[in-house]
Amino acid sequence: MRRLSIGLAAALMVTVVAGAGPLQAKAAKEAKLTEKQLEEARTFMVNNAIFTLFHEAGHMLISEFGLPVLGREEDAVDALSSILLLEADVEELDVAMQDAADGWFLSDEAREEDLNETDFLDTHGLDRQRAYAIVCMMVGADAKYFENFADSLDFPRERREECEGEYQHAKDSWFSLLAQHQAEEGKGKPLNVSYEPADNPDVQIFADMLKEASVLELVSEGIGTSYKFDDGIKLTAKSCGVVNAFWNPQTREITYCYELAVQHLMLIDGYFKREKVQN
């Protein structure tokens, strides 16, 4: 895995330890970034973690309740996680959706090798396909709210109209399947949350950022208390040695790997560098 630039890593460390103020401004200057870019990097990392966790929670819902899936599960879960976030009708989660789409666009741009047969055989769609699918969900849910974001991508007007019907159909289908599993108000239980120490001191600062943002609690409270799960499901953030996040139906555990947070920071770090060169 490529290394995160020392400048961004150090500046983010100061942001967490000292907060906004003169020290943050100094760290941003030394990293050749603006304070706004530092905050954008932190938010981008957190928001992509949120989308990833909701994606894995989609796998959890399918597994725990035996929900039928027609088609490729990864595509279905991308749609389900998008619907759960968008229907929450919370501005911060709408921003998370935009960052998630940008995350897949940046991942596609950062690809260092040409596509090969293995990429087309993968259980996931191509990064750029996933990005546009998320955008389709966004404009399908609220074309006006996400208009500027879609315009920035030159997302075709005729496609936006199609997305409205696609989103409504997907939402109705998923919610009809989930209806019988919804918990009565006040009777749902949060899931078990655990942030394990990172196995690398350089990564611990990012683990602390995720904990400070309560990314696991967002899933625990937002989904765990909404549905009738049996006790024992765990949400864990930890070092894994690989860039990943996954739901394990045998252990009934969602795992978010800190390495994935570092990857998202590397993506936006690269974006800032390219933007600087172009300007």
- Report, as a whole number of angstroms, the end-to-end distance: 28 Å
- The spatial strand order of the largest sheet comes to 1-2-4-3
Which segments are poorly predicted (pLDDT under 50) over 5 or more consecutive residues? 1-7, 13-30
Number of helices: 12
Shape verdict: globular
How is the biggest beta sheet arranged? Answer: 4 strands, mixed
Give the integer mean of the pLDDT values.
86
- Strand element count: 4
* Strand residues, percent: 5-15%
Number of domains: 2
Helix content: 55-70%
Radius of gyration: 19 Å
What's the SSE pattern? HHHHHHHHHEHHEEEH
Offer a quick outline of the entry:
This is Metallopeptidase. The protein is an alpha/beta fold and 279 residues long. Helix content is 64%, strand content 6%.
Describe the structure.
It is a single chain. By secondary structure, the chain is α/β, with parallel strands linked by helices. It folds into two domains: 6-184 and 262-278, no CATH class; 192-261, no CATH class. The chain has twelve helices and four strands, in the order αααααααααβααβββα. The protein has helices at 6-18, 22-30, 35-65, 73-87, 91-109, 117-121, 127-141, 147-152, 157-178, 201-212, 215-224, 258-278; strands at 192-195, 234-238, 245-248, 253-257. A hairpin with a 4-residue loop joins strand 3 and strand 4. The longest helix is centred in the first third of the chain and has 31 residues, at 35-65. The chain is globular, with a radius of gyration of 19 Å. InterPro entries: DUF4344. Residues 1-20 form the signal peptide. Keywords: Signal. This is Metallopeptidase.
